[in-house]
Write a structure and sequence with these properties.
single chain; four-stranded parallel beta sheet; 36% helix; 22 helices; globular
Length: 627
Amino acid sequence: MDSATISRILPRILPRVEKPGRYTGGELNQVVKDWNAVPVRIALLFPDIYDIGMSNLGLAVLYEILNARPDALAERAFLPWQDMEAAMRREGIPLFALESRRPLAEFDLVGITLPYESLYTNALLALDLAGIPLRAADRGEDHPLIVGGGHAAFNPEPVAEFFDAFAIGEGEELALDLADVLRRRKEEGAGRGAALEKISRVWGMYVPALYAPEYRSDGTLIRTAPQSGKEDLPNPVVKRIVPRLPPAPVRPIVPYLETVHNRYAIEIMRGCTRGCRFCQAGHVTRPVRERSAADIVASIEAALANTGYEEVALLSLSSSDHSHITDLVQALGVKFGSSRLRISLPSLRIETVSVDLVEALRSSRGGNFTLAPEAATESMRAVLNKPISARQLLETVGEIYRRKWTTVKLYFMIGHPRETADDVRAIAELARAVLAEGRRRLGRRAEVHAGVSTLVPKPHTPFQWLAMDSREQIAAKQDLLRRELRGPGIKLDLTKPEVTLLEARLSRGDRRMGEVIARAWRAGARFDAWSDRFRPVAWDDAFRESGIDPAFYTHRERAADEVFPWDHISVGIRKAYLRRQYEDSLAGRTQGDCRRECFGCGILSTFRELREALPAEERFCPIVDRR
């Protein structure tokens, strides 16, 4: 079916589906190029519905970068909701891009964003709706290349058989290199295999079909390495980074309908130096690079003029760690104060939330203020390497409540190494202490929302050797919290154990997991991140029918020298460093901020040449004293 036919059918079916604006395109700042005048055509697919995907910053960045090239176009695609999916299947409409309404199968490349593992079955649904074979081995010369990226791609093996390639790391320069390969492929008339060979030699690209895993009889890995005859391919595949953050997008598309976040979002800092041992994002995004306050203010000014947004989100893993965060917020207050611009900092560290910063945010005060102590006892926080005290937390929330924020949201985790029932009970005690602090300031208007998730020992973190809690252990700890943490002014949010366990199995899996994912999808698993759509029975059946014990991936403490499914993917951090951090966590030893002192994680040596090419004032990582 061609784009003209799709455009002719849509007006007939859209009035009968929920939120038809999800499928029309045509929003402010959309880019539509002449299909026949542009040689490189890329579809950027977020494998969830429009309402979710339109808030993804990575998609907005790649859309603007690729469309800035005269020889390339980038269009957007999202999954339809179930009513629209049924209508599309009934009418024979394939999954299409919003800008041109061309089927995804007509593009040169479909880039699928994978920020979390629960989107895997959605990715298969998207390929099926697009009429593209699910497995890379079944695709022919006329099919687009399917490339995955995002944080889940740091262990690509569970979905390796469904993707032609993965972009490992940061996409700003990688996307342009891929566009170059696609353009040359057309000029040379190169086949699919030749194109993938070239892609495999682009820094940060991983082509799984050119690598093979080898297993022992007990199911553990011997290695994942280039296939015979391909020994010159990168091994490990080192993630791509940009030495300095490029200009932020300033013409984001403004949706017609309400999405998860209706605001201008700008990444003010990338990477984190705190070394929280559970945090995958903090490890895989090193080193830290900041945008200057002047660049941020200029980008915000341009973006507001281009969009009309009234809220700005200053994003990073720890926004209060930006070197000039207070000055930045104060400058935004002065520049945009008359327009009542609302400023949000979704991620703040307790020890860097100063009185001045809280005061600077006062003019853009929203309904709640979010902090993440993660654990409630100092011994557990030492295990996590988050050495803050309860006194610091209570002093900080006192300043927050004093400035009339009525709700403090606290993020905790359970399932830490050596955690006891008393450590879990302490979460309730600390939340009640925070509420009491609020009641002293605001009376009964003060509230506390406690969100408690369960630790998933993620790849590329010090906890990757750890056996996670069983379903029964998680349920028992959550029951304890429900008993201890209730009453007026307190709200408790818990993640279902089944959801956490699936995330763990998928994030820690190897290439054999592909059969499980395919079976679960065929059994109806999709939208696994939606609690009302999650079907744990489909997954349990898929594991059983595939002959795979999920506990092998989740509840088994790994040997110190075990080879992991993600070991051939390098984020620049040495495995020996992570192991040392794991042993330090068990001993309760903490490590400081590595912007002040280098602890030898490996980032500096991996990216030394990039660092040395920067002006001294822009170099990431501290100078190492080798005396």
